[in-house]
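anyone seen this seq b4? input:
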Amino acid sequence: MTADAGQSGYVELPAGRFHYRRWAAGPEAPSVILVHGNGSSSATWSRVAPALHAAGLHVLAPDLRGSGASVRPPVGSYGLPEVAADLHDFIDALRLPAPLLIGHCWGAAVALTLATGASGGRVPPALSGLVLEELPSDMAATEDQPVVRDFLRMMRGSREYARSWVDLICRSWHPADRESLLADAWGTDVDVYLSVIKDGAGAGPLLPHLARLELPALVLRGNPRRGSMLSDGDWQLTRRLLPGHCAAYEFSDSGHEVHRSDCAGYLRLVEDFLHATVRPGRPGLPSTLRG
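predicted toks r here
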């Protein structure tokens, strides 16, 4: 599996100019939007996007506000309603028919907010489904939470420190994933990163929105003893709240960055889910995702 940066593009939205990457497919190909987490950018999907494109999908990965090469509004402008509105505008501007959303952490929270209309004010766009990786129970993380603490140290430390940390902690990852994590850490504005947490906290608990899902969804988490942000109690609640047309799966050997630490396993589940939701003639969830 090789990394492919895709085609870089820009689109003017009400909030400003947004950058995205596109892996184009034929006009009949289903569309998938990859929504990155806090402190990341479209670079986080360096192996996921090309693999989904190779499977025949039209793949797009936007840089959310404040990230990558997209517009950077002032601190205090990073609540879930604002970011979900950006994603809604992105879908409208590119005229994407019923895309599937795949989100990681903050991106998962944004995707869930958009799909359920939790931010209010607008009717959600037509979507074919959701994949929510490491959906936080809420956005009110603290600086001593391991995932947040470690990433802040990478952002605030020297490049030598960040590289040595990644080489040690992420030594089992594919080199492309280690490099994309470093690119994220070196390219992230600390003030924006903290604003996402502070502003996003205003949305309150996120897991109750799962019960409102009317479209298929696959919720994924890593192992909390390896860095997952979802506690065992949160995971039990997630499984109770999910409607019957949705599924949940835990990666016991991964932490918060499932799509990087176990890219092959992640892609197997996601592609199974895609075949069940956006491909014609494959109704219902496959047996690997039921229960």
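The domain at 7-141+190-289 is CATH 3.40.50.1820 (Rossmann fold). The first strand starts at residue 7 and ends at 13. kinda curious what u guys think
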